[in-house]
Specification:
With 282 residues, the chain is of the alpha+beta class. The chain has helices at 3-14, 18-27, 32-50, 79-82, 85-100, 105-110, 119-130, 178-192, 204-218, 225-242, 258-264; strands spanning 57-64, 69-76, 135-142, 147-158, 161-171, 249-250, 253-257, 272-279. It is elongated and about 85 Å long.
């Protein structure tokens, strides 16, 4: 193989620039395997310097089918990189692997990608090639027996890659409108960002924090303690209603609650099994 062809092959294997490949081959007397190792070591050095920067942009990828569906967040520093073809190709393949290993972080990082190199090594190579901090963020897989999963994606960049995505798992129903309602509930979750399905499921820490904020707000109001307590109870109740899926105003008909829409369509409100909502920047 000629020197120029070795440089081309090394570029293909590592994604590194012409100059870096040429220098690595000279350093190893034309040995492709050793040159690849050198570039990976250099890539790790370059990548580690970038990991101190903020990565608040990126994409959300949804993969799978209606029985098992997975969602994963891949972060970068700029929206420009989030739309880069190499970044999107990496994100799409990562999404499929994430679904295959059911969002297990260790399995995912050690999974082999199509080029027979691990996710972790490909990530380092991509950071070195693109020149930005790139991280694998949140991920989750939804798989429930006798349930059907529905997907909604907003601000789609390409195919199953977007800026916001929702997966909703509903217990199978004989309702004629089941598929339509499943899709619409996912759209509602995307727009209204509920914390939980029902108010009783809201984490106690969230309630306690909200109670403290309300207490701070009311402490200098000059009202009697019993009045403050009643106002506080009312505000907490409203907070829980507005942040629980079933008691939220239905985005497509705000005079009704989500649970009312379910009942009207012959779907029991307990049929909402699980949901997840990821948005870049949140």
């Amino acid at each position: 193989m000629s020197d120029i062809n070795k440089v081309k092959e090394l570029r293909k294997l590592t994604g590194a620039g012409f100059k870096d490949c040429n220098l690595a081959l000279k350093e190893t007397s034309g040995n492709l395997e050793k040159a690849t190792e050198i570039l990976r070591v250099k890539g790790i050095t370059k990548a580690s310097k970038k990991m101190t920067r903020d990565a608040k942009e990126g994409v959300i990828v949804v993969s799978g089918n209606s029985e098992k569906t997975s969602i994963i967040e891949i972060n970068c520093e700029t929206d420009f990189v989030a739309k880069n073809d190499n970044f999107i190709l990496f994100a799409k393949e990562l999404g499929d692997l994430n679904n295959a290993c059911e969002s297990n972080p260790d399995k995912l990082k050690n999974s082999l990608m199509k080029n027979k190199i691990s996710v972790n090594e490909n990530l380092i190579a991509l950071i070195s090639k693109i020149g930005e901090k790139i991280t694998i963020g949140r991920n989750q897989t939804i798989k429930n027996e006798n349930c059907k999963n529905f997907i909604y994606q907003h601000s789609v960049i390409k195919d199953n890659v977007s800026k916001l995505a929702v997966i909703t798992s509903l217990i199978d129903s004989n309702s004629n409108n089941f598929d339509l309602i499943g899709k619409q509930i996912s759209m509602h979750i995307a727009a209204s960002s509920p914390i939980s399905i029902d108010s009783k499921d809201i984490n106690k820490e969230i309630i306690d924090k909200e109670t403290q904020l309300i207490a701070e707000e009311l402490k200098n109001s000059g009202k009697a303690d019993d009045i403050i307590n009643k106002i506080s109870e009312g505000k907490i109740k409203k907070f829980m209603e507005e942040n629980s899926l079933l008691t939220q105003d239905w985005v497509m008909e705000p005079k009704k609650k989500v649970k009312d829409i379910l009942i009207e369509n012959g779907i029991d409100q307990n049929f909402v099994k699980e949901f997840v909502r990821f948005k870049i920047g949140e």
